[in-house]
Amino acid sequence: MTNGWKVLDLINVTKSFFERKGIVDAQGRGTARLDAELLLAEVLGCGRIDLYLRFGEAVDEARLAAFRELVRRRGERQPVKQILGRCEFMSHEFDVSPDVLIPRPETETVVEQTLAVLGDGPGMVADIGTGCGNIAISIALARPEATVYATDISEAALAVAERNVRKRGVSERVTLLAGDLFEPLTGRNLEGRLDCIASNPPYVAESELSGLMPEVARYEPRVALVSDQDGMGHTLRILEAAPRFLRDGGALVLEMSPFTAERARAAAEANDAYDKVRTKHDLGKVERVLMAEKRA
């Protein structure tokens, strides 16, 4: 049974609804039309581009009800990628859920710099706080001879990472380990052997949480977002512990808040275990990634 609602009608009405809700992306750009199309394409089981060939097609009652439920969730500011359960990162698709941070484009800089450290040959890498596994898996896919150890304190996050590891076919080279930061690496004969340590740790300050977009503050896991009162806690812990596991000349590649970049760099420079401390800007041209080599 049809109800008179056609594809283009639903897109336009939903776009207007999302605009009234003030839905924008992290850069403040309106995404109402895009989000409406993504959700409708999901319900219709087609690609977003295919909607343009189906504007005049009527939508049956069952699909309309399913679409309304997705629109309700997005209207309450649940991230569209979380609703869909997937996200693209480094041109690969990853499962996501409310238990993991949704991968951001700026984190691609962490992967790019890690790959630069590894060069073209084999290497051993640790991804600290892996979440859905996007960093670890992207490294393994780009370097087929690399071995990657990925840790996370959240068992629920590791379950999502495990799905992604299997889907991308890297189970033999990506080892998922449960525990806080470096603790799961202890006792595995990895001390002084890693070529690179990559991490996108929690770095939001407690005081910043209320000012974040509702999509982030309400729906993404606090354990993956917030560090402590000033946002530096996890950054400092990683800077302190990483040299124990790096080989001489190995590198730490650490995502950080642009608000604390100067303090993070100063902390690395004050640590005698490091030299060649530098920072990299992300695609948004903000200081996002700290790099430091272990002094030989």
Radius of gyration: 21 Å
Q: Main β-sheet, in a few words? A: 7 strands, mixed
H-E order = EHHEHHEEHEHEHEEHHHEHEE
Kindly, what is the distance between the CA atoms of the first and last residues, rounded to a whole number of angstroms? 72 Å
CATH superfamily label of the largest domain:
Vaccinia Virus protein VP39
Uncertain segments are none
Provide the fold topology.
Blueprint: E1 2-6, H1 7-20, H2 32-44, E2 58-60, H3 61-75, H4 80-84, E3 86-89, E4 92-95, H5 108-118, E5 124-128, H6 134-142, E6 147-152, H7 155-168, E7 174-178, E8 194-199, H8 214-217, H9 222-225, H10 233-245, E9 246-255, H11 261-270, E10 274-281, E11 287-294
Parallel strand pairs: 5-6, 5-8, 6-7, 8-9
Antiparallel strand pairs: 1-2, 3-4, 9-11, 10-11
